[in-house]
């Protein structure tokens, strides 16, 4: 029986033999923006097509629920890196309807951890973090607006960075604008 790992490595060998790798692309995003979005598998190809972007156009950061709980957590640090190292000028926060994070709870996830053999004392260490993250997330559109607000209030993100909020339908690719980050003139 072939494992998933073996399948992926075999595909990679074929990929390399065919020299299928596209031309060299700069590590600096061509369109000078960062995209913060969800890790939902339905968005993997859809979001690029729906936004009209290609490989190399943007720095893309994905996490569960397009979340931003810790004001200086890895997501914010990654965005700061895109600003100060890769010269991005705009941030697009794109959540999606039908988000799995909005449909679960900390109790459900923690119980599944317990059922899989994670020790209760270990679960207790993350219980409050999971409650703050999962139990407050009930509306993907409101989450996008909250993330945009937190990013705009972050003292390390310069005021000249435009921060936009959108939400995408994972079935059709339709984008709805929630927050236009351009200065009002």
General description of the model:
Helix 4 (106-115) runs antiparallel to helix 5. The protein has 6 helices and 5 strands. It has helices spanning 4-17, 43-51, 74-84, 106-115, 120-134, 140-153; strands spanning 33-38, 58-63, 90-96, 162-168, 175-179. The protein has a 5-stranded mixed beta sheet, with helices on both faces. It is of the alpha/beta class.
Number of helices: 6
Number of strands: 5
Main β sheet profile: 5 strands, mixed
Average pLDDT rating: 94
Distance between the termini: 63 Å
Structural class: alpha/beta
- State which percent range the strand residues make up: 15-25%
- Rg calc: 19 Å
The parts where pLDDT drops under 50 for at least 5 residues are none
Give helix and strand order, one letter per element, not per position.
HEHEHEHHHEE
Helix content: 25-40%
State the strand order across the main sheet: 2-1-3-4-5
- Describe the global form: globular
Detail the topology: elements first, then pairings:
Blueprint: H1 4-17, E1 33-38, H2 43-51, E2 58-63, H3 74-84, E3 90-96, H4 106-115, H5 120-134, H6 140-153, E4 162-168, E5 175-179
Parallel strand pairs: 1-2, 1-3, 3-4
Antiparallel strand pairs: 4-5
Helix pairs in contact: 4-5
Key words describing this protein structure:
185 residues; five-stranded mixed beta sheet; 6 helices; alpha/beta; globular; single chain
